[in-house]
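To close the chapter, one final illustration. This time we ask the reader to focus less on the individual chains and more on the assembly as a whole: which components sit near each other, and how the overall shape emerges from the parts.
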Amino acid sequence: MKFVDYYAVLGISSDADDKAVKVAYKKLARKYHPDVSKEPQAEDKFKEVAEAYEVIHNKEERTKYDELRRHQQSRARQQQGSYGGNNGSSQSNYQQSDPQTDQEFSDFINSMFGGGGGFDRSGQSRSNATRAQKGQDVEIEFPVFLEETLVDTVKPIEFMLPQRDSSGRVSEVKKSLKVKIPAGSVNGERIRLKGQGGLGSANGQNGDLYLQISLVPHPLFDVEGCNLNIVVPLAPWEAALGTKINLPTLTGKIQLTIPSNSQSGQRLRIKGKGLISKKAKGDLFAVLKIVNPASIDDTSKKLWEELAEKAHFDPRSNWSKS
Amino acid sequence: MQIIVTQKDDLLTSQELCLSSDINEAILYELVEHSIAVPIEGERATEWQFTVSTVTLVKKAARIKHDLSLDWSAIPLILQLLDERDELISENEMLKQHLSRFKHFE
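The assembled structure is written out below.
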């Protein structure tokens, strides 16, 4: 278990007054709050900051903590002395805001305030009272392929469930289920599996499992609401003369007619071949992209030159008007 | 292995929402008053029904209020701005993905 310097975590001096403590906390909370911040490890950093604030902004706990801190400081000095000093360096041996696991933080705070006491993240006091308590709700991201959203799909799922033993220690057990996902599920949608979360204590009901649908990116199709986009590469002569192509959709290939004189970026709508939702059936949009061959042989070059001579087409005619 | 069948239009009662979100009734009234939690069915509090996604929203609202020491009145604006930011991020990602498909021919 490592000593955590809460003053360092909050970036304040040990004699900072209440106002300075609050200002430092608010600043860091805004920066690292997991609902607001997009920084990596924001949640871990916020937990450190919240735990430090819970202790430092409470007079009684701060006094206890300061005593412990002084004790740690003198112990560190003694240790440095017995190892021949540190050549005048003022570096301390404290473990500062090292992003360690939550467990280490909890161990530390429990050692200070007793195993049954302390605070949870919301600042509410914990107690081991034996009243009926609902088990913990569990929320997990559930990857679903686009094809799987078109029909009811049964998928296996494995997840870790927190379980508290008789001594109050929390461990994780693996749970496996098969879940029927209804057709028309959309990205970000939450599905509740009642009673499949953590076990309730003292006859309390079990928690729920929440699955957050996360659509797996498709190699060909991009999702735009209920609609899908697919980019269709075309040779210049296919775009000019028109053609028929086999177009992949989520349910198999269809034949698509490319009209003559098609333009790059033009979108062709294939009705009802997108995703489905509660309210509507989406469409598939084929977005045309004119592509030249990476290299051309002499015959092709001559044909292009002949076309250039005879076509009388100026793609930049607008420029000359301005 | 048992197959758990999910319900597409699963709704939660006020009591279930309070239990799942770890809030009391008084806070639920505040949330409804500020349109953070919007019952989609029921006129009286005892008849209120909420969508499943309300749980996540309520938890988020309660966390932000507590952790940033804010009033309830500030929360709807924050949630709306966070929503708009998330939508813009996902729209931006979608457009980038679309652009990359358009730029490179494989």
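Chain B is about 60% helix and 10% strand. Residues 75-103 of chain B form the longest helix (29 residues). With these observations in hand, you are ready for the problems at the end of the chapter.
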